[in-house]
Amino acid sequence: MKTQHPFLYGLLIFMCLISCDTFLEEEPRDIIAPENFFASEADARQAVIGIYAILKNNSIYGQAGLDHFYDNGADIIEPNRVAGFVQPIGNYTLDEAEADRSEQKMSVSDTWKDLYKIVLNANIIIDQVEGNDAIQPEMQIDIVAETTFMRSLAYWHITNLWGDAPYYTEPLGIDEIKVLGRVGKETILSGILTDLQFAQDNLPGLGEIPDAQRGRASKWAAAMVMAKIYMEQKNWQAGFNKCLEIIDQSGHALLPNYADVFDPANEYNAEVIWSLDFAKDIRGQFEEGVPRIEGNGNWRPSLFNPRLRDEPANTDERTALSDALTARGEAFNGTGLQIASKDFAEKFPINDLRRPSNILDNYLGFDLAFPYIQKFMNLNLDLSPRFNHSDNRLVFRLADVYLMAAECENEINGPANAYQYIHPVRQRAYATQAEWDLTGLNQQGFREAIYDERKWELAGEAFRRYDLIRWGILLDVVQNLEYRFWKPNENIRPWHVLLPIPLQELQINPNLLESDPTNNGYR
Amino acid sequence: MKKKLCIKKLTSVATLLLLFIGTAYLSAQTITGNVGSEDGPLPGASVVVKGSTRGTVTDFDGNYAIEAGTDDTLVFSYIGYSPKEILVADQNQISVSLGLDNQLDEVVVIGYGTQRKSGLTGSVASVDAEDIANIPSSRVDQVLQGRAAGVQVTQTSGAPGAGTSIRVRGGNSITGSNEPLWVIDGIVVGTDFNLNNLNANDIKSIEILKDASSIAIYGSRGANGVVLVTTKSGSSVGGGKPQVSVGIYTSTQLVPERPKYLSQEEQIAYTNEDSRFRSAAEPFPNDPSTYPDNDYFNLLLDASNIYNADVSIAGASENGNVNYYNSLNFFDQDGLIKNSGIQKYIFRSNIDFKLGEKLKAGFRINYSRIKQDNGVVGYGGLLNILPTQPVYNDDGSFNGFNEVIGAPFANPVAIAQLDTDETFSSNLLATAYLEYSPIKNLIIRSTFSPEINDAKRNEFTSSQRPDLLVVGENGSARISSISSFGWNNENTVQYQNDFGENHSLTLLGGASFQKTSIETFEARAFGIATDATEFNNIGLGTDPTRNVVGSGFSGFQIASFFGRANYAFKDKYLLTLVGRSDGSSVFAQGNKYNFYPSIAGAWKIAEEPFMQNQNLFSDLKLRASYGQSGNQAISPYNTLGILVEANTTVDGIEQPGLTLGRPENPDLKWETTTSLDLALEASLFGGRLFTEFNYYYKKTEDLLLDVTIPRQTGFTSQLQNIGSLENKGWELLVNSTNITNDNFNWKTTLTLSSNENKVLDLGGQEFIDVVVDEVAGAGNLRIIVGETVPVFTGVRYLGTWKSQEEIDASGLNPGSQVVGGPRFEDLNGDGLLSNEDNVVLGSPFPDLIFGFENTFSYKNLDFNFFFQGTAGNEVYNLRTGANYFTRGENPKYFDIADRWTPENPTSNVPRAGSDAVTSILSNSEYVEDGSHIRLKTVRLTYNLPVDELGWSGVKNMALYFSGTNLLLFSDFRLIDPETSNFGRTGLGNIAQGFSSGEYPNAKVLSLGLNVTF
Q1: How large a percentage of chain B has pLDDT more than 70?
Q2: Whole-Å CA distances, A120 to A241, A344, B645, B803
Q3: CA nearest neighbour of B854 among B843, B845, B867, B844
Q4: Which of A2, A18, A22, A27 to mutate to test the interface with B (most CBs of B within 10 A)?
Q5: In this complex, is the C-beta atom of B473 within 8 Å of any C-beta atom belonging to chain A?
Q6: What's the average model confidence in pLDDT over A180-185?
Q7: Strand B874-877 relative to strand B927-929, pairing
Q8: Cα–Cα distance for residue pair B107/B100, rounded to 1 Å
Q9: B273-292, pLDDT tens digit by residue?
Q10: Shortest CB distance from A30 goes to which of B553, B652, B654?
Q11: Fewer C-beta within 10 Å: chain A N or C terminus?
């Protein structure tokens, strides 16, 4: 009996050896693995929502990620004081190293990463959903169309910001993606034009998106991007046709009153083609730039809101202003880092009814030291508190399409038939016909009228630098402007029409230098 | 080859042994008895009939039986103990207790057993209860500091109950934990066990296993060293009477020195200057005297107290069949910062039973209940408030708005009064064992050890907080809990025998299984308008859209098989072979198992005949070991791809969303450390001087690194097994009895160690950036081939630009530089300031660490002081960004008063506001010397002459007065360089030596009394 004990022990150990394979199996209970995820339509929809969350990151539409490239360092927006994160483009000190530096997750490298994150996720979704038996065929198309739009939008921004870039549309492994070199911009654009047409054909229209789904992209958002690409390619006819499609078929309409377009209480009005939804208090709607601060992480309106310390112009009246604001349930507690530039404020026509929405230089009777872009401000402490703003991010609206149509028509046939597209935008901008009625312009004159009209109408809506580059006049405009304290007019160089690929990317993926050793002229 | 030889010898030895036993039967009577020592029975002691070849060894209880005649003399011997000779005469029962050969040959605990120090082939550092008696310390890890050579212990924070970071012979891993494995009474509790759960007074000894041979028995988990903690038992209390010990002490913690900042007036001047430079409005247009001058440091820090009481009862039955040790500890500490503190109740019961001739069993049970006030105000935050910030408004209410930034102000005075953050935790750590000896020399032991841990944290943010009132926000509350259950089952078979006079063999084989699972839960509610219920009724939250609820699960299993052979020839030549095969659930199929072998040998030179005619060395031993150990370095599920939550709102309503959080990574495998250890131990002048010198070399391969990958993948990094690093160094231990006589004794202990660490390979990359702060970005901590891991990096700060000509000549973009602004070195001269201009600025790990202790005793008085410190390490001061370079909204160091101004154009302190022009990169100004010397403890003990006083019931009584952290020699700006902003886990694995003004280590004065009845 006694001698059996060691034997029993041996047996026990032996048995354990046999069963160890099961003993050592992992049981993941609180994580979701991609392989077994896309098992229903609901699963796939969640993955699509995930892409919206990326779009709202600070690096893209959330804060100033895209605004850096699309609006700063031009003739509309400037900070009210020296600010590090605006400086690279605002003052054209940008270089490869600066592009690497991540500040509040909205620097060049963050934008690069997040746009490709959309591509990565989109490719996985499309791969998993197409031909997936668990999802109804028409729903498959619906999901793939929305995902394809997101991927195309990401690539559109990528070509705008960097020109040639890595381009792939299959679910590649990380090891394959990380060695991709740059592909010609035209190749990418022609690829995404096909994709966008598919998206437009299969995405819902204005009336087909239920109220509870507002904030999702419609087929007209896809058409909008297509029209912009055609215009950039100077394919004016295709651009014109696309604009007319939107104007005639979308059901979107211009609001009679300019200011109403930006009413925070009516963010999904008829003029708005696409607006990204943000809600107060709800954390984790996107990857927050400064995670430790209370609120929902949405700072963007704070960038446009004034800071009490800078105001009013007469500092002795600060307490009075503060009290007046408090009485209205408001506060000047923004940062004032994205406000109207000196030049823009000085030149905005006084008789233009859009001026108060774009230039706020007096509030509650107090003269302000700086001009603010009122249409993006929200001072309400209750509905839109500091760093916890509920305000949506406006992406596309119909007035832009009218001006695009006017521009296309002028480029194809000259101004004669183009007035009909610029006038609806101007009519609501002035009190009398004498003011809004444009006549007798030649093609160049009309072109220049469009330059101005887009500036007044679409100020701060993240198109300006893109437009100036597209027209080939960025350098000319910037060099001839006076700025508040920086010297972008002296610092700007021809290569600033694109961003550099961040230094670290080149260091660990030298293939990125193969097609263009100068890195867009930055080295 | 060697192995085969061994086996051959063994078989011949066994035959011989049988012959001995055979002849012994021919003569007269059987003598039985027990061989023991102060520490209990001595298994494997040799009993020989003098002048004959007859002999035997004791069994695992120290019992023996031998045939001997009345004229025979029995010789009892055991390595390391003085032998005893006893004439048999008419006795048939002879029990002896052997005394130690010399005081140094103590029994030390090793993995799965004990060994006499003289019989060790590996490197083991020991700390005895005696060494740490009368040191008022609530945590075992704290007392290790400076006491074990090669072991660097860093107090990461002075907050009550805060842990330490421990490095045994340097760090072996970059991503994984570098903390040693803790084993408490044989229970493997991992690297993260909360040591607050242990009562320092229960500890009998702590052993730290350092070299390959001693840690290989812990295989994959031993690479960072193993700390074995053994608690007290009643076996040494003889006579059947219980021994009661009572210890109490009370301490006062004093507020340490405060870092020096600008005065209120100087700060106002700076802040205004900064705003003017930025073309912004001056925040303080009026005379400085019209603004407040508050010292938030003084408002929130106060001297505070510690109370501690211990009671223990220990004893053994007269026949020695049962022994027990029970204790209860109460500890109560208030922190220096208001609202921080810890309260602990710890109960321990250790019982051993002898159930029969062949069966033993026992328990070790430790239960603790801890209440921790986590503190709602951070020390670092206090350093970042301008003196002009009012505490109260004019109407007497708390101020909650920072006018300078134009943002709500989290008023620490209000928060300390209103908010709550506390953790209640309870821990049960137990083991039950059964030991069975079916035949002589064979011991089978099985243990089952459960650990149950429950912690609940309550956090409450008051609706009355002024910063919330300002924005019209209500209060919030969060309740979170972690419960874990784990078990550990160890089964070993040990065979021990001596074969003749010359051969001694111990064989150990075993299997071990462990399973741990952790569940987490949290709930947070917002919009709590009343303070009446705090966190106790979070259903009162009025804003359900913001509710946060979450839960999680994590678990792992480990299965291991191991074996060890110890062989000694003539007690002079020692050989140890160890192997362990470990399997872990965290790796994917095919990578689950790994095998870790080791070999060690020792030569006890002093036992050689040629050493017998000298008096200098009483002991001299040379030993060497070589082997492998591992580190699993990754967390559960790390090989699996995961989708992570990416919810977002649609039409104002949150909707579930997911994105790919991590691609799958099935190739991940163990990190393996191969190490070599060479050591010389010498005992001189009859044991008055003991020295031990170790040299070691360790190489870790298949390092798990979070490797930067191109962001075009949508990710910034990926975990990969690439790269290798080495650690080499030496350790010296000197124990000296300088003076010893009847009235006066003076003893000195010195530990000195040096570790040099170098990155050998990073999978082809030259360096890897470790991002320690997402907001600040990469660039200050780097792992570079050929350098220490990690190193602080940055550009060199060259002072200020003195003229526009200098700027123009530099080739840097003139738009980003300004006269009087900071000048950084464009090392490669490419006109860009980038990470390509980075240089190595220092390393958090010292070149040298030391401990130096002196004990003087005169009659009944003992006086002891202990210095400890480091040399050659650097600290990365995270405050320097805000407090030296940037933004007028932040307080500035006192030396910024001498900054560059047009009137002071030679200053090398940058002008106010210049950070708005020049990006402040990680630079040399951030890095400071971390070398320091600390008078860790001073202690005066008076042992009352209880016999002379006629207190017959009292065995001994000691009254002591001690001081901790009384002196600190350091030049660090934030005073105490021994801090770690990132703690000891996660990012803290690698990002050591960062300081942002951590909770300071208090100066502690204590008065205590220990009585034993």
Answers
A1: 95
A2: 32, 39, 16, 50
A3: B867
A4: A27
A5: yes
A6: 97
A7: antiparallel
A8: 10
A9: 998 888 888 889 999 999 99
A10: B553
A11: N
Sign of the CA dihedral running B462, B468, B474, B480: negative
B781-784 vs B791-794, strand pairing mode: antiparallel
Contact A53, A121 (CB under 8 A): no
Q: Before A517, cis peptide (omega within 30)?
A: no
Task: Evaluate whether B65 touches B36 at the Cβ level (below 8 Å).
Answer: no
Could you tell me which chain A residue has the CA closest to the CA of B510? A13
Strands (E), B169-225: 181-184, 187-190, 203-209
Task: Give per-residue pLDDT as tens, B564-611.
Answer: 999 999 888 999 999 999 898 888 888 888 899 999 999 999 888 888
Rounded (10°) CA dihedral A181, A186, A192, A197: -170
User: Please, is B143 exposed, middle or buried when counting C-beta atoms within 10 Å of its C-beta (0-12, 13-18, 19+)?
Assistant: buried
Q: Please tell me the total number of residues recorded for chain A in this structure.
A: 523
Classify residue B216 as exposed, middle or buried by CB count within 10 Å of its CB (0-12, 13-18, 19+). buried
Where are the alpha helices (H) located in A29-164, listed in sequence order?
41-55, 65-70, 87-90, 96-100, 108-129, 137-162
Could you tell me how many residues make up chain B?
A: 1013
Q: pTM (2 decimals)?
A: 0.78
Would you call B938 exposed, middle or buried from its count of C-beta atoms within 10 A (0-12, 13-18, 19+)? Answer: middle
What is A218-238 written as a DSSP string? -HHHHHHHHHHHHHHTT-HHH
> Could you tell me if A83 lies within 8 Å of chain B, comparing CB atoms?
yes
The whole-angstrom separation of Cα A92 and Cα A483 is: 12
Q: What are phi and psi of A96, to 5 degrees?
A: -60, -40
Strands (E), B117-273: 124-128, 151-155, 164-168, 181-184, 187-190, 203-209, 226-231, 243-254
Residue with token string 């035997």: B56
B404: nearest CA partner in chain A: A309
Asked if the bond preceding B666 is cis, omega within 30° of 0, the reply is: no
Please state, in angstroms and rounded to a whole number, the distance separating the CA atoms of residues B338 and B176. Answer: 35
How far apart are the C-alpha atoms of B900 and B801, rounded to whole Å? 9
- Which pLDDT score, from 0 to 100, does residue A112 have? 97
Angle at B821 between CA B816 and CA B822, to 5 degrees: 90
Q: How far lies A379's CA from each of A302, A334, A390, B860, in Å?
A: 9, 8, 11, 76
Q: In what order do the strands lie in the sheet with B124-128?
A: B124-128, B203-209, B226-231, B181-184, B187-190
Rounded distance, CA B664 to CA B637, Å?
A: 10
Task: Read off the pLDDT of residues B159-169 as tens digits, 9 standing for 90 and up.
Answer: 888 888 888 88
φ, ψ dihedrals at A236, nearest 5°: -60, -40
SS3 state at B479: strand
Give the pLDDT of residue B775. Answer: 54
Q: Is B603 an 8 Å CB contact of chain A?
A: no
pLDDT of B105 over the 90 cut? no
Question: Considering only residues 571 to 590 of chain B, which have any Cβ-Cβ distance to chain A shorter than 8 Å?
Answer: 583-586
pLDDT in tens, B43-95: 778 888 877 777 787 887 888 888 888 888 888 877 667 778 788 888 888 88
A30 contacts B715? CB cut-off 8 A: no
Helices (H), B278-420: 296-300, 379-382, 412-418
- For chain A, the farthest-separated pair of C-alpha atoms sits apart, in whole angstroms, at 116
Residue from A8, A17, A24 whose CB has the most chain B CBs within 10 Å, to mutate? A24
Task: Put the strands of the sheet holding B791-794 in their side by side order.
Answer: B767-769, B781-784, B791-794, B839-842
pLDDT at position A2 is 40
* Cβ-based burial of A510 (10 A; exposed 0-12, middle 13-18, buried ≥19): exposed
Mean pLDDT rounded to a whole number for chain A: 91
